[in-house]
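Box 3.1. Reading complex inputs
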Amino acid sequence: MLQLKNVNLNYGSFRALHDINIHADEGELVVLLGANGAGKSSIFLTISGLNKSVSGSIKFRGQELLGMKPSQIVEAGIVHCPEGRKLFPGMSVLKNLILGAYVHRKDKAGVQRSLEEVLDMFPILREKKDQPAGSLSGGQQQMVAIGRALMGRPKLLMLDEPSLGLAPLVVKQMFEVIQRINQSGTTVLLAEQNAYAALKIANRAYVIESGRIVMEGDRDTLLGDERIRKAYIGG
Amino acid sequence: MELFFQLVLNGLTLGSVYGLVALGLTLVYGILHVPNFSHGALYMVGAYVAFILMSNYGVNYWVAIAGAAVVVGVLAMLSERLVFHPLRDAPPIHDKIAAIGILLFLEAGVMAIWGADFRRMPTPYSGIVDIFGLTAPAQRLLIIAGAFVLVVALHLFLKKTILGSTIIAMAQNREGAALVGINATKVSLLTFFISGALAAVAAGLFAPINLVYPAMGHLVIMKAFVIIVLGGMGSIPGAIIGGLIIGFAESFAGFYISTHYKDLVAFLLLVVILSVRPEGLFTKGVR
């Protein structure tokens, strides 16, 4: 469904990504593991079309994404829920969600349907729908961010560190939500530092270090791998 | 009482014009973080276009203002497309220099086409209106009403329509806006159009009680900058309230202190307010 071939990314003279080859098949939940600054977000931003000076090829359902505008990539069905959430803090929760469906704005009934689905998935947002998104707690803001991404009706959803900075209980809920989204048919690419929790719900995973893919495999292989245990899980 | 009323009316008039100009400035600043120094020149071109449409082509006053709004709006879009857009990734100082370049270009252009003479723009509303036993020039009331209608319309557009929301979304989080599929280029062009059109309407409304000449935008734009600094850069309510503050201060200071110093008041206020609240008056306000 999504296939990156030999993707390189430069920030000025610094090469942030080296020959990245990853793929995700329809319906999969694929995890990108790696420490801070390893290149997970760079991969996502590159797929979303927000990074320039990229070489290689990024194909989504046979369509080349490289060179497309971020708005066209959203229209093609890839929605990116970024690290740090990037909400519109002064706007109400409802407005944030509605703007998430920006590319479907002409389909008013469809937007309303997605909105109901998202509010059913996150009942707390229904209560807070008229409050400015910036006034919510971290966990609730993350729900708005995921909800906003779902409003774009993604075929492929990219979640960048959705558990970052959240309380342990909220993290658990977040992973349950991600699993549910995936089970309802959306392909998910998930970047995480929380390796154990992420691997548990994953089909496959890639490990990234210093802008390179250093390891890949299915869930059980990686969960059982000694180096992964040492580096990312501890013990 | 009569005198006080005149001063209030005068303050409201000035405040309306300054507010409209400052609104355009703050909208553009909000999404691009470019202080558009050429905004005053757009205001000036707006006055000229309206004036020429009326005097050379005998066009109706309102049609002339609408025409000026469209022409200047398109001019503002061109400046974004041809000048600011290519500089998007350049160091921030380049935008500022380019903005001054546009200002000089437009002023020189107007001078070359229409000359440097001072002109007086006619208005069909030169009469005096009687309200509650008080007299007021019709044009001043028109300015206030016009500005009020525009501000309400702009507010509804930004808050109630999806297209308007994209401008606010981009101001609040540029990356977030791109990730939901909002096309940054289109939003920038739209914002520049609105900004230019607001300046042109302000000029068209104000010109009949002022003069039309190539340097007419200088003081207006300086005051508009004072207003958006006072109101908080990028804040829409800040621009409106800041405009009224400066308008009233000028009107009252012009009478009670001296008309010679009325232009100084805005800048004096800037110094005073910034030493008390360096972040501006309304930076916390919802944009």
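In summary: Chain A has a mean pLDDT of 93.
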